Amino acid sequence: MDEVEFSAISKVKQNPAIVIRNAYKKYAPNTVVFNGLNLTVPEGKIYGLLGPSGCGKTTLLGCIVGRSFLDSGSVELNVKRRLDLGYMPQFTSLYDRLTIVENFFVYGYIFGLSDEQIRQRAKEFTALLDLPPLESIVENLSGGQQRRVSLAVTLIHDPQLYILDEPTVGLDPVLSLGIWEYLLQQASNGKTVLITTHYIQEARQAHTIGIMRNGKLLAEEPPINLIEKCCCDNLEDVFLQLSERQEAHEEIKTADYPEKSERVSVSFTEDHKRFSKVRFRSIMYKNFMLMRREYVFILLLCILPISQTFFGNYTLGVKPKNLRIGVVNNETPLDKCNDMMMKDCFLNQSHNVFLSCVYLDYLKKESYILVENYNITDDKTLAHDDIRAVMQFPANYTESIIGRYMSGYTATDANVTGSIVDIWIDTSNQFISTCIKFDVARYVFKFIRGALENCGLHPESGFSIPLQYENPIYGDFSGNYSTYVAAIMLTLCCFFLPTMFTGGVIFVERMSGALERLIICGASPIENIVSIMLIQLIIHLFQTIEAMMVTYLWFDNPLEGSAISMTLLMIAIGASGMCFGLMLGISNENMTMTVYAGIGANIAMAFTTGMSWPLEGAHYLLRAVATYLPNTLPVQAAQAIGFKSYSIFHPVVLLGFASSLIWAIVFLAITCVLVSRKNNIWAIQKE
Ligand SMILES: Nc1ncnc2c1ncn2[C@@H]1O[C@H](COP(=O)(O)OP(=O)(O)OP(=O)(O)O)[C@@H](O)[C@H]1O
Predict the structure, then answer these.
(1) Distance between CA atoms of 187 and 194, rounded to whole angstroms?
(2) CA distance 463 to 411
(3) pLDDT tens-digit profile of 108-143?
(4) Is the CB of 685 under 6 A from ligand 1?
(5) Which residues form the ABC transporter domain (predicted)?
(6) Which residue's C-alpha comes closest to atom 28 of ligand 1?
(7) What is the reported pLDDT for 348?
(8) Is 610 a pocket residue for ligand 1 (Cβ < 6 Å)?
(9) H helices of 562-646, where?
């Protein structure tokens, strides 16, 4: 018996279709996959690649179709166009939400097939592979059915070279036999087939067998030769025998691994063409079909900006109502207060006006709920959680006010102390306590003015502060938080939604393996990214218009500047959000990370826009950084257009645009670096 050489260079004499020489590859220092591997696939033959699980068969096929690189060595194919290559990945890698025929159209269009040709091929494969009805959605098919559809997709364009990664896994023997018969027939027509399989006996039908183990090819011969040489009855025994022999020579595996990594890859002639109308049409077809199928998701995308802006405008900055205030009125019980007191002159003692009633009536009209006979505990803490403040009026409150008014600066100490209302406020909620402080002070002046007017006196003759607020420079007198925060919410909405959509779509396409499959079929990454961004841009335009209509038409928030400038700014913000999403979708290996990174970054950026608190109060280091984060300058630009009617050429507005565009470029640049550095970036590795 001849000694079977390790790493045998083929003795097959036919023209080679695939030649791999001195291939080295490792994923990590301890994961050497190829260690000087040589392989030759003869043209017009079926080559069965066998090897234990994890020996590198899929990696090898990946290097042949251009989805992975070798660290060193060479790969040569007899085909120079992707059109001549048909690759069936290990996982089905189809568009699960599309129907079988829609998948045929996506991949048929990529290769420039006409509708008629695609339909014809679909018919042929339905018969050959016993496919389910072509209108079935792929995700509803069984594993075996999906695998058969995947094989049909691989062969739709009638390629010269078939690279098939375990096409018969999970199929019944009849179907497997049918597939092998078809492959043999194709080989007799001059097609070359490289096929991996775990079913060793099935591989007997191949013209040549390659047995791979520990980074090398142990043998490469017709199956019958191998069986004879090893004096075995079947291929399984050959495989075991060769494996045992290699164990004995294990030291060979640690042969000198090249120090320099060259990233060797196959190249196809049409690869220089980064953008092709034919391929772009196919990708857009796929996007539109997916959108049509996912109409509920699209509807949700349209509703989201409306709901976000509605919720935001209805909750943020709206004055709290129905706050409960405990009242201890030592002057008179509240039920003795009446409407007459509000109109009568308090200086006329016979009218029995209680000013505490007049004051409390103002609070009641402002929607405060007064809790009567409230008991103040000794330590002045509020006894009930829902009581936000407690007010205590002295017994001789009205009398003391009159005394103070009549005597002016000569008022007695008793009159001064008797006219003071004590108030205890729960400050655990700063917004609410500030609101109460503001209202109780405001109504002191208001009710004194009203009371003096009831007596026919000049309203300013009472207690008032010598300060006059003129018209606001920007904004209105109410100066409320909701108008301030409206533009911020709009900005965040326009950044966040494109981030999540783009990141999500890219991630899902990577996870399904369909994106990588499209790229192997020749679709360039640029075509894919541009198509996703185009769809997102259309959606974003709708979302921006909806969100602006809710913000400015429904809620009447101030938009002093041009609506067109504001729309353009929101589109620029959306573009940077999209690029951020793209970076997240490409860089993460699991969905949870993508979602966490997207939401986490957006929450952090929302804080640094000054939405919840002015940035002027932040730590000076954070303030310095926050200014240059993606949403800070755009928010300032949006505020400037909304409140100050700045034009698009004003430096503040230009800075907002510049920030969004620069960030978009930064995110794209990071994405490009990741794409050029990482192996198999277009697919998430499955176990
Ligand atoms: N992207 C990757 N990063 C790190 N290691 C990887 C990667 N892809 C594959 N590997 C490792 O490389 C080795 C070869 O994997 P490969 O999938 O090529 O084997 P295989 O022979 O196809 O296995 P199977 O028959 O089970 O599909 C395995 O040890 C695997 O863990």
Answers:
(1) 11
(2) 13
(3) 999 999 999 999 999 999 988 889 999 999 999 998
(4) yes
(5) 18-239
(6) 54
(7) 78
(8) no
(9) 563-587, 591-607, 620-626, 632-644
Q: Residue 244 has which token pair? A: 């045992």
> Across the chain, what does the average pLDDT equal?
87
What is the C-alpha to C-alpha distance for residues 57 and 39, in angstroms, rounded to an integer? 12
Kindly report the number of other CB atoms within 10 A of residue 114's CB atom. 10
Rounded CA gap, 443 and 422, in Å?
A: 15
What is the 57 CA–ligand 1 centroid distance (Å)?
Answer: 8
Q: Is the CB of 59 under 6 A from ligand 1?
A: yes
C-alpha distance across the termini of the chain, in Å: 40
Question: Nearest residue CA, atom 18 of ligand 1?
Answer: 56
Query: What token pair was written down for 274?
Result: 């980064």
Structure tokens at 587: 């860089």
Q: 434 pLDDT exceeds 60?
A: yes
Question: Residue 536: which of 570, 576, 502, 509 has the closest Cα?
Answer: 502
- Helix/strand/coil for 483: helix
CA distances from 45 to 65, 74, 368, 602 (A): 18, 21, 88, 56
Tell me the one-letter amino acid at 655: L
**Residues 201, 170: contact at Cβ < 8 Å?**
no
* 561 contact partners, CB below 8 Å, separation of at least 6: 640, 641, 642, 644, 645, 646, 647
Phi and psi at 254, nearest 5°, equal -90, 20
Instruction: Tell me what pLDDT residue 8 has.
Output: 42
Residue with tokens 């396409």: 509
In the three-class reduction of DSSP (H, G, I as helix; E, B as strand; rest coil), residue 332 is classed as: coil
CB 233 within 8 A of CB 6: no
Q: How many Å apart are CA 664 and CA 630, to the nearest integer?
A: 9
